[in-house]
Amino acid sequence: MKLHILSILSAAILLFGCQNNNIKTVEGVQSAGALHNVMSGKLEAAISLSELKDIPNLYALGPVEGLKGEIQIFNSKPYVSQVSPNQLDIDTTFGAKAAMLVYAQVPEWQEISIPKAILTLQQFEGYLPSVARREGIDISKPFPFMIEGNVRKLGWHVVDWDENSGMEHSHKSHQLTGLKGVTMQDRVKIIGFYSTGHTGVYVPHDSNWHMHFVLGNERVAGHLDELLFGEYMTLKLPKTD
């Protein structure tokens, strides 16, 4: 009887071990495609989201292939926002492809209360690397971060490039296309990636980060352009050992 029980336990442990070996993992911050390629008009897919669908604790952002929408993934749940004639549609499947994507796996976050004195992105730009270094993160390497809470104001856009417009794709023409909006006094989740060494890859030329968001009601998601912090917002950083 004891031998039978031991055999069952051994088989269960072996099966569990095999299942764990099949779990996909991501080491550090990874990317596919590059912003400088996108801005020069190379809008084809660099990666399919389906390649990442089995990765737990996944966070990601980037534009849809053809610049027909924005991708944001929070804890392995996609929010792919695309512009239709009368509304913004949100797809929560892994069916889209990305012209550029930056992504990371974060099993656990540590939370830091953002000081009330931090009101603008300009102030946050100095605060983020300082607090990340304090919390044990090597800021010479790229890292993901999140911001959660009620914002005073958030400006956003969802790109919707018209390949038949006759315009050559550039940073200026990129800004002229798609849907833009402003949300006031609303609860948001923001995913961002910080790096001083990936300008033109997944970080724009005028910043050290790239950020996307989803509203608390999950009806709006897209690229973050402007932010005025509210009180009692929370910064989340990857938990270090």
CATH architecture of the largest domain: 2-Layer Sandwich
Alpha carbon gyration radius: 20 Å
The CATH superfamily title of the largest domain: Hypothetical protein, similar to alpha- acetolactate decarboxylase, domain 2
CATH topology of the largest domain: 60s Ribosomal Protein L30, Chain: A
Would you identify the regions where 5 or more consecutive residues have pLDDT less than 50? 8-20
Compressed to H and E, one letter per element, the order equals HEHEEEEEEEEHEHEEEE
Number of strands: 14
User: Outline, from the CA principal axes?
Assistant: globular
What portion of residues belong to β-strands?
A: 35-45%
Q: Quickly count the domains.
A: 2
Q: What's the level 1 CATH class of the largest domain?
A: Alpha Beta
Biggest sheet statistics: 6 strands, antiparallel
Q: What structural class do you assign from the helix and strand content?
A: alpha+beta
Intertermini distance:
43 Å
Number of helices: 4
Helix content: 10-25%
